[in-house]
Design goal:
8-stranded mixed beta sheet, 8 helices, alpha+beta
Length: about 260
């Protein structure tokens, strides 16, 4: 039964001690401590906690007729329904507290956050985070650099997973950093491709969501940066729209864009 008390929120030592008092009906701290397998010193601390929680009480026993004029302190268990009252009071406190905490949580989430991730593993982590975004994902991609880091295997896995989630990718690429025979506009792959004017070259990749922007470097610098900011994401979306308008539609495979 003491295990169920632990599940109800009591510390294991407190649960053993409480059961010792409950089983004996009336006992001393020393006796309860022995039965709960805790030291007498710990027994006093536990008794104080349980008294404060209203689970047990201290009672004073009057002096006896054996010449000992000192009163003795004993512990008695209170009605176990106190556990329900305690839980109800905690629920009332939480009902009042949680909305306040959620307001603080929402406020903290509204503040811009920047994360820096190093190496190919960091690039892969940042890239795969975009799979949790909503459609469409806007991207300025350097495929040649992505095939170096995070690498061909990671890119194949990412593309397959994006396809399975039906995440549309609107992507602008430069021909100088493209991959031969790679990834045209495709309804099956949920991808729409445009190529930037020839005077532009991209050696880095940027993926733009509704609230986040992920930037992936080339293998030479080998880092990723994630910016969580709605305003920054909106700014990058606007820049992307300008680039999209001046870019030429890419080759089409299958029946066209979704």
């Amino acid at each position: 039964m003491w295990q169920r008390l632990i599940e109800a929120g009591l510390d294991p030592k407190d649960a053993h001690f409480y059961m010792a008092v409950l089983n004996r009906g009336r006992t001393t701290i020393a006796s309860a401590a022995r039965e709960a397998h805790v030291s007498r010193t710990n027994g006093y601390d536990i008794a104080n906690r349980l008294v404060a929680r209203g689970l047990i009480s201290r009672v004073e026993t009057a002096a006896g007729d054996d010449g000992d004029r000192r009163s003795q302190s004993h512990l008695v268990a209170n009605d176990p329904s106190q556990l329900l009252e305690e839980w109800g009071e905690r629920r009332r406190v939480l009902d009042d507290l949680v909305p306040q905490l959620r307001a603080l949580f929402s406020a903290s989430r509204s503040r811009p956050m920047v994360r820096y991730l190093e190496g190919p593993a960091g690039i892969r982590t940042a890239l795969f985070e975009t799979l949790g975004w909503t459609s469409p994902i806007r991207g300025i991609l350097s495929m040649r650099d992505l095939m170096a880091a995070p690498g061909q295997a990671a890119m194949s896995e990412y593309i397959n997973e994006r396809r399975s989630r039906k995440l549309v990718l609107h992507v602008v690429r430069t021909r100088g950093h493209d991959w031969p025979q790679g990834w045209p506009t495709s309804s099956r792959d949920w991808r729409v491709v445009r190529h930037a004017p020839s005077e532009y070259e991209f050696t880095m990749t940027t993926l733009i969501g509704t609230e986040q922007v992920v930037t992936l470097s080339s293998a030479r610098e080998s880092f990723a940066m994630v910016v969580e900011s709605r305003e920054y994401a909106e700014l990058q979306q606007n820049f992307f729209s300008v680039l999209w308008q001046v870019s030429a539609p890419g080759e089409v495979n299958e029946s066209g864009p979704p």
